[in-house]
Amino acid sequence: MEDLIVTGGLGFIGSNFIHHIIDSRRDLRIINIDSKGSGSNPANVRELRGNPRYRFVKGDIADYTFTRKVLKNAHVLVNFAAQTHVDRSIANPEPFFESNARGAFNLFRAAQERKVDKMVHISTDEVYGSINSGSFDEESPLNPSSPYSATKAAADLMAQAWNITYKLPVIILRCTNNFGPRQHPEKFIPKAIIRALNGNEIPLYGGGTQVRDWIYVDDFCSAIGQAIDRGVAGQVYNISAGNEMSNRAVAARLVKQLGGPTVRLVDVEDRPGHDFRYSLNSEKAHQRLSWKPRYSIDDGLAMTVKWYRENISWWKPLATEKVLSGTPWKERW
Ligand SMILES: NC(=O)c1ccc[n+]([C@@H]2O[C@H](COP(=O)([O-])OP(=O)(O)OC[C@H]3O[C@@H](n4cnc5c(N)ncnc54)[C@H](O)[C@@H]3O)[C@@H](O)[C@H]2O)c1
Questions:
Q1: DSSP for 242-266?
Q2: Fewer CB near the last or first residue (10 Å), C or N of the chain?
Q3: Given the CA of residue 175, which atom of ligand 1 is nearest to it?
Q4: Quick one: average pLDDT of 38-58?
Q5: Which residues contact residue 59 at a Cβ distance below 8 angstroms, ignoring those fewer than 6 apart?
Q6: What confidence score (pLDDT) does residue 311 get?
Q7: Catalytic residue at 205?
């Protein structure tokens, strides 16, 4: 049985990926490395306690001594570890540099030294910046606008350089906005669901006109699995599900799922540097990774609303007034 190292597996996508692999790949054993920092939640993997195919190691990838040690004998590595809350990156960018740039740098160095067979680095559509019409492909220039996306872009460039200079077998996946179970209540869709379940309005930054392309998290997890099996070292693959819509349109779909007109939408002030539209062309992933999304946006939203309704004990401790604030970038984090 081979070891698959996952960094950042206590977070939203990493934990969904771990569940996906445990359920679908009996040939792999998971080692989950996480600093237990912001975005992490041990409850995301509580079902795996005692599972012989799962092990947790607490540690910070910004610490090179730790990172080098933990990658000894690593075969395959998937890096999710990052500071991801864009609003917080505006208020306090330094931890973003430490995890997203220095941490990724340490992983590339250690993976090269330890001669891993394959590394998948998880990146984001936000590295391309905003686009008014058309869609970015993998050759589009990087043009980040927030401290979060700038540190993610720095990691992507290092990954490419480590592949060219040191032949590190690294693959970059740039994905659009994920949603689904276990996403922190600070993010748009869980915040909207929880506020509605609490009888509060759903806040829309700057009128809710910003356009995002939404993907159900399990579809992204299957794309990562395909990248491990079929991805070519040094290549970038965009991952999107073609569910492009304004935040207001997503909120309206949620209102339907949540039971209709008693749920209200409210416009709030826009956050600084808010990108207007993200859009990816993911034809390359369809062709070369043989990957296609399975879930429609409405099926994904229905499964997500059901999960938050059924898992109140999961989100209740996280859903503080500050986290559910309509203007979180004004808070101190
Ligand atoms: N959520 C999205 O919509 C989305 C979209 C595209 C790409 N991504 C990327 O996917 C990855 C996962 O995102 P997420 O939404 O699951 O994030 P998350 O915030 O839910 O989880 C991130 C995890 O990384 C861990 N971590 C952070 N810094 C660390 C460090 N220095 N050492 C060890 N662990 C550390 C945290 O403790 C947390 O458990 C990120 O790289 C993000 O940039 C996310």
A1: S-EEEHHHHHHHHHHHHTSTTS-EE
A2: N
A3: 6
A4: 96
A5: 33, 34, 35, 66, 67, 70
A6: 97
A7: no
Helix %, strand %, coil % of the chain (to 5): 45, 20, 40
Predicted confidence at residue 331, as pLDDT, reads 66
List ligand 1's pocket residues with C-beta within 6 A. 7-8, 10-14, 34-37, 39-40, 60-62, 80-84, 99, 103, 122, 124, 152, 175, 177-178, 184
Fold of 2-178+215-239: Rossmann fold (3.40.50)
pLDDT of residue 88: 82
CA distance 281 to 285: 9
**Ligand 1: which atom is nearest the Cα of residue 179?**
3
Two structure tokens written together for 61: 């990838």
Would you give the end-to-end CA distance of the chain in angstroms?
Answer: 42
- Which CATH superfamily includes the segment(s) 185-212+245-277+295-330? UDP-galactose 4-epimerase, domain 1 (3.90.25.10)
Residue 329 has pLDDT above 70, yes or no: no
**Which of 5, 7, 10, 13 gets mutated to test ligand 1 (max ligand atoms within 8 A of its CB)?**
13
